[in-house]
Amino acid sequence: MKSRKLIALVTGVLILMTLSSFAETKKLERIGLYTFAQVRGKIPTQEVMKRLVERYAGDIKYGFDLAGNGDLYLPFLELMKTATFEEKALQIGDKMIWMLFRVRGKVKVVQDIEWAGKAPLEVFSFTVKKGYKNYEFIMPKPCGNISLRRIEEIIPEAVCNLAVKPPKANVNDPITVDMSGSQNAKSMEVDVFNPEGAKIATKSLTPDSPKWQTNFDKPGEYVFKARAFNLEGKASTNPCEAKTYINFPPICKLSTSCLPCKDYVGKPITFDASGSSDPDGEVAKASFEITDAAGASVDKFADSEKPFSWEKIFLKPGVYAVTVVVTDDFGAVSEPCKIEFEVTQKRSFFLVEGGPLVAKGSRGPYFFGRLGFLYKIVPDKLDFIISGGGDLALKGEPWKSFFSANLLLNAHSGPAFFGAGAGFSTKAREGKKSNAELIANLGFDVFKKYTSMGSVFFEGRGAIGEGRSFSKNHKLALGFRLLF
Asked: End-to-end distance of the chain based on CA atoms, in angstroms?
């Protein structure tokens, strides 16, 4: 028991003799007395020192933790695998932050040391980089002790990295500015220049918030110039620029095949957007829409093939508007083009009618043929007709051909119609007189288009006036009427 105490006392005295004071900077006058690892040979090689580090890795970790630099343990071991040691001479008076050594098999750490030997100390030197600091370690050649000699603050140059996406976009599309690839940056800054070269914005960013989203309401090429700042606030010097191009929207141009569109109900009207253009591409689609006077949508059409036109037939008269927007090959949409127009229904028609006719007492047929004019007072409801022509007698004397004329009003109920009016006819036989007549007719539309119609009708005519009885002075006809 006493011998153990004596050994501990001697050890303590020796440590005190070697390190002259623990309260202040310790003067290290000798090396190799308390070696961290046993070194063979007087001047070991780098390979030998690396093997020692590998062999005593657990003790080194314990020592680093004891010294308060446990975070350097793994970088230290990694460096040992590939590092090339630098041979240096530690001058008298040079200081060390701490040193690992071993006493009676236990790893110890001594802090704040100064080399106070009689000659410079030969050491191996190597540097561990972690964060923004360089940690210089030394290993004295005569022993395997490990010492942290000094810590040097290193502030690397900032490296700017700028990405702007997409490289091409439409007006008001989101543009993302990304500086997350910048290195060693405390902050970043980006300037934006419009197509005329004027600076229009400056945005400050940080490593925690390296992205910015913006948009542009005018087309053209926009330039982004950025810089990154390191911990000292020094700006990066590497080129850091990007561009984005805002697509010019197309320009629409619209025309119609009629304006005004008189008598165009039932006729095709062409809306033509082929004159549309795009300053930096080409038109890819035209979208048409027709609305009525109240603004309600009547019909729509999209054309993706040139010449970008639409043929439309209107079945009802009215005031309409056609609007077109064109889209370019990059998806940009033009401002709308709009034309207002009125489509009217045809109300005036020429007519041709004819058919068999019998006159009272003729004992034989006539064939009548007339030309005339029809006006739709109220379309599909009420018509006014004026017509006249010849009635050809198909038998001879005493019956003769005569001329007749009509003035009628016809009312419609769907395809059926009926009407009445006044007429006139010259004498149909010798001994007779020309007659003013009352006329009634009844008919049915065989076909009906907006520009032409055909109908069959039955007509009765009776003479009016003194001495002219209906029973002795009437005519009956069955005819076909064509309107065009």
From this structure: 140
Total Cβ atoms within 10 A of residue 398 = 13
Region 320-339 average pLDDT: 95
Tell me the three state secondary structure of residue 249: coil
Q: Are residues 357 and 274 in the same domain?
A: no
| CA atoms of 99 and 467, how far apart (whole Å) | 153
Q: Is residue 158 part of a domain?
A: no
Rounded CA Rg of the chain: 56
Q: What angle do CA 255, 258, 260 make, to 5 degrees?
A: 110
DSSP state of 39: -
Domain total in the chain: 4
For residues 73 and 58, what is the distance between their CA atoms, to the nearest angstrom? Answer: 10
Which of 102, 128, 153 is a domain's end point? 153
Strands 187-193 and 211-214: unpaired
401 and 391 Cβ atoms separated by less than 8 Å: yes
Cβ neighbors of 17 (< 8 A, separation 6 or more) are: none
Please determine, for residue 8, whether its predicted confidence score (pLDDT) is greater than 50: no
Reported pTM: 0.58
Residue 5 contacts by C-beta under 8 Å, 6 or more apart in sequence?
A: none
Q: What is the C-alpha to C-alpha distance for residues 19 and 6, in angstroms, rounded to an integer? A: 20
Q: pLDDT tens digits for 248-304?
A: 999 999 999 998 899 999 899 999 999 999 999 999 999 999 999 999 999 999 999
C-alpha span between 303 and 103 (Å, rounded): 92
Reported residue count of the chain is 484
Give the position of tokens 């729509």.
300
Percentages of the chain per state (helix, strand, coil), in multiples of 5: 10, 50, 40
SS3 207: coil
Tokens of 115: 């080399």
